[in-house]
Structure formats: structure tokens, C-alpha cells
């Protein structure tokens, strides 16, 4: 009896520690987000001198107004949507097709193909050879230079392969008895059963491409094709706010305050698609990750 009570106390203590840790993690995650969100709506001088303020008289949408009026950030936003969407469709298609093929037991040269994929995870050609390949294909300064080089992810292929190997083989055997071809089995049976891993791969691919800026910085010259993250990098790191966002009549101190407000507004705008997207993918996320990574 005493042993059971001691175990119960230990369990309660462990749960309490877990709750405290989770609350701490939530706080250190939410506080910066709330600071940036409120900073995008507060008047710059109030934020710098008083900090947070819930007084409606101190709120303003001037940062967002300047962003929408200028157009460069919105153009980068729509460019990022286009790049991330095309990249996601292509990357997920490659991952599920290659993963399903490698999950088939009687695939010819299965081990050499798998070794070739795994080899590329540890050894790559590097930046200069990749740049030369992109240039020789005539892809410089096009959206495909941003999308194609990283579309094949070996890690995503491994996740998809492991998930497909966990599906019941009896379903495929029954479909073959009914006369279904391999393509029809994949399209009508495998894909509908693979929604969790497909949504997880899509989330990985979209987030990765949405946050990417290095490829665009290397391969793109036309600024009208820049993604949002590359424009945001210029604003946050290099402090290069587009002059069209700030009036020439503003004093230097006021320009600095307005520049800070534009930075906060830009960060919020860049985070919106991911914040809107994640709740719809959440129900598939845990199942897809666990089944795809462990067998």
C-alpha cells in the first residue's frame, strides 16, 4: 500500500514538473511573438519609451499601411506563395513516388538505388558545381532556379518509404486479384491511406521553402522575383527599408522609429501563412511523423 502511495506521489510530482516545464516553454515562445505582434500595432515612440500599452490611443496600423502602399513586400509575399506552393507539389510528388517504389519488395536494384540516395545525404557537389549546373540549364534568374535544386529530399523519401512499408500488404494483393494495375493500386488505395504522411511532407516542404532565402540570393538578379524572406532579410539584418515606405520629410529620429515599426509589421506578415496553415495540418502531423519515422 505504501509502495502504491509512493508511486502515486512520484507520478504526481513528475506531472507537476512536466506542466511547469511546458508552461515555461510556452511563455518563452509566446512572449517574443506577442511582443512583435503588439510592436507592429503600437506607435514607435510609445513602444520605445513605455513598452507594451493596451491604450487604443497608442495603436496604429501605419506600419501595415506603408507596407501595402509600397508593394515590394507584397510582391515578395506572393512570390514566396508561388515558390513554396510549386516546391511543395513537386517535392511531395517525388517523395511519395520514390518512397513507394522503394517500399516494393521485388524492386530491381533496390539496394544500389537506396545506397545512391543515402550517399547524397552525406556528400554533395557543393555550391559552385550546383551553380554551374543551374547556369548551364539556363535557369538563372528564373523561379525554377529556386525550386528545382532542393526539390528532392532524401529524408522525405525515407519517411514516405517507411510509412508505405507499414501499410497492410493484403490490400495490394486483394487489388491485384481484382485485376488492378500497380498504378491503380497506388492511386486508388495507397494515396488515400497516406494522407498523414503526405500532409506532413507538404508541411515540411512548404515551411522549408517559405523560410528559404539563400537560393534566391544566389540565383536571382531581378528584384521583382525576390521572395519575401530575402526582402525581409534586407530589412532586418541590413536595415534597408525601401525609401518608398518612408516619407522624405520625416526627421532622422522619426525615420528610425517608423523603420522599426515596419520591421515588426513585416515579421507578422511573413508569419501569417504558417500560423494559418498549421491548425489544418495538426491532426495529421503527429501520426504522420511517428508512423513515418518508426516502424
Instruction: Tally the beta strands.
Output: 0
Name of the CATH class: Mainly Alpha
Main beta sheet strand tally, sense and closure:
none
Please tell me the overall pLDDT.
81
Poorly predicted runs are none
End-to-end distance: 39 Å
Give me the CATH architecture, please.
Answer: Orthogonal Bundle
In short:
InterPro entries: MetI-like, MetI-like_sf. By secondary structure, the chain is mainly α.
Write up this protein:
This protein is mainly α and 295 residues long. The protein has a single domain (64-293), classed as MetI-like fold. It has 14 helices and no strands. The protein has helices spanning 2-41, 44-49, 62-70, 72-103, 110-122, 127-136, 143-147, 154-165, 169-177, 182-193, 195-210, 214-219, 228-236, 252-293. Helix 3 (62-70) packs across helix 14. The model has no long low-confidence stretch (mean pLDDT 81). Belongs to the binding-protein-dependent transport system permease family. InterPro entries: MetI-like, MetI-like_sf. Residues 77-280 form the ABC transmembrane type-1 domain. It is found in: Cell membrane. This is Putative aldouronate transport system permease protein.
Amino acid at each position: 500500500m505504501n509502495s502504491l502511495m509512493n508511486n502515486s506521489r512520484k507520478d504526481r510530482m513528475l506531472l507537476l514538473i512536466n506542466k511547469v516545464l511546458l508552461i515555461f516553454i510556452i511563455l518563452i515562445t509566446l512572449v517574443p511573438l506577442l511582443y512583435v505582434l503588439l510592436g507592429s500595432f503600437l506607435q514607435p515612440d510609445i513602444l520605445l519609451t513605455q513598452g507594451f500599452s493596451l491604450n487604443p490611443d497608442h495603436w496604429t496600423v501605419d506600419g501595415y499601411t506603408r507596407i501595402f502602399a509600397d508593394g515590394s513586400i507584397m510582391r515578395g509575399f506572393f512570390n514566396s506563395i508561388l515558390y513554396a506552393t510549386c516546391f511543395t507539389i513537386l517535392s511531395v510528388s517525388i517523395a511519395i513516388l520514390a518512397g513507394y517504389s522503394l517500399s516494393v519488395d521485388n524492386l530491381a536494384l533496390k539496394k544500389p538505388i537506396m545506397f545512391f540516395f543515402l550517399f547524397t545525404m552525406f556528400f554533395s557537389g557543393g555550391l559552385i558545381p550546383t551553380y554551374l549546373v543551374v547556369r548551364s540549364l539556363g535557369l538563372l534568374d528564373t523561379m525554377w532556379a529556386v525550386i528545382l535544386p532542393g526539390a528532392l529530399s532524401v529524408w522525405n523519401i525515407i519517411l514516405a518509404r517507411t510509412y508505405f512499408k507499414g501499410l497492410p500488404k493484403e490490400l495490394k494483393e486483394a487489388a491485384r486479384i481484382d485485376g488492378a494495375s500497380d498504378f491503380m493500386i497506388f492511386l486508388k488505395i495507397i494515396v488515400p491511406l497516406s494522407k498523414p504522411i503526405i500532409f506532413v511532407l507538404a508541411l515540411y516542404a512548404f515551411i522549408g521553402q517559405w523560410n528559404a532565402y539563400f537560393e534566391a540570393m544566389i540565383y536571382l538578379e531581378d528584384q521583382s522575383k525576390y521572395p519575401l524572406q530575402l526582402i525581409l532579410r534586407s530589412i532586418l539584418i541590413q536595415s534597408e527599408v525601401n525609401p518608398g515606405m518612408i516619407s522624405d520629410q520625416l526627421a532622422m529620429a522619426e525615420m528610425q522609429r517608423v523603420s522599426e515599426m515596419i520591421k515588426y509589421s513585416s515579421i507578422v506578415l511573413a508569419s501569417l501563412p504558417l500560423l494559418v496553415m498549421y491548425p489544418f495540418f495538426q491532426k495529421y502531423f503527429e501520426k504522420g511523423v511517428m508512423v513515418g519515422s518508426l516502424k
